[in-house]
Hints:
Blueprint (H helix, E strand, L loop, with lengths): L7 H14 L7 H4 L4 E4 L5 E3 L4 E4 H5 L3 H16 L2 H4 L1 H6 L1 H19 L24 H15 L13 E2 L1 H5 L3 H24 L18 H12 L6 E6 L1 H4 L6 E3 L7 E6 L6 H17 L4 E7 L3 E8 L6 H4 L11 H8 L7 E6 L14 E5 L9 E4 L2
Parallel strand pairs: 1-3, 2-4, 7-8, 7-10, 10-11, 11-12
Antiparallel strand pairs: 2-3, 5-6, 8-9
Helix pairs in contact: 1-4, 4-7, 7-8
Amino acid sequence: MTKSKLSPQRRLQRSHIALMRSPRFALISGIILLGDSRVEDGIPTAYTDGRNKVYGRQFLNTLTDKQLNFVVAHENFHVLYKHMTTWQGLWRQNPRLANMACDYVINQQILDLDPEGKEIELPDLPLCIEEQYRGWNAGQVYEDLRQQQEESGADEQFDDQGSFDEHGFVDARSMSEQARKALHQAIDRAARQGDGLATRLNGTRSRDIGAIIESQVDWRSQLQDFVQSVCAGRTSTSWRRPNRRWLASDIYMPTPFSEIIGPMVIGVDTSGSIDASLLNRFLSEIVHITQTMPPERVHLLYWDTQITREEVYISGEYEALACSTKPVGGGGTDAACVKHFVDAMNTKPELVLMLTDGYLCGAWPCFNEPALWLSSSDEKSPYGKTIHIE
Length: 390
């Protein structure tokens, strides 16, 4: 037992303050303030339903202050990553592997944020930690664990491993779509608040660890309109990509061509006028585009007055985009460099998507391919369609 003159609830509050003041963990400060955080009897360790965080009184009394910081960070990272609502499908398939996958992601993340142990210390518990999962999301970890289990042919392979805390997948499953959306919006606002504090402390931000906030654009509607207008006449279907509307019911159906997008070029303005917050907004839109209607291939271009970096992603790699991408730039703003790049491509894209603040040094380029512009200002391209975001 850890002896302390402070009550368990007071120790929890002190842990919150310590993490919020830390440049390493300030990014979760808004998440810490989201929902209810309390100490209760009858909770074996700790629990979250994706919004609220509950800690067992007896369990808390066994932890040192740094160990408590680890547990508190762990629960709040579950909320930040929206684990309880995002990975419902995995939990229905295999609850244990889903729980483990989420914990592998979080535990390695916490260790990487504080490798010297200045704020956190691992509790004396069986924890899911594996360096090979650094930078992976829960879906990728789950698939690897599932393959390991299938190859071994033993259900008891992970008997000595597991999550130390309780994950409220059941509670999250009962949420309505409206409630789920409201929760995601609240988490995004809290994440932005945390990023603001982290920036002032010159610390780690949510984008730095691959946590992407919710999109402002209904990309399914926008891209369906585009595909239907550009690919008119495609009335057949394709079995190459299963229809995701039916997968939740375990029914394999073909996808209509009207929902299929070929190669896409995405050009992201990384000129000097693009700050970290706006860049994170751009990346959130890209993540949601690739998850909503995955293109066959994405050429992700960062540009200022020239192409500063090209990254190519194909189907199956989009989940890791938020963690793996490395924006480069900081100069002037000339979007013509993207047109020159596209004109030189051997295989032309089916769509060019440009993300910018709209303050170009040169003229707006006129692409030979269909183009969508996403602008954070009132500036509008005279060519193609422009969507405005805040």
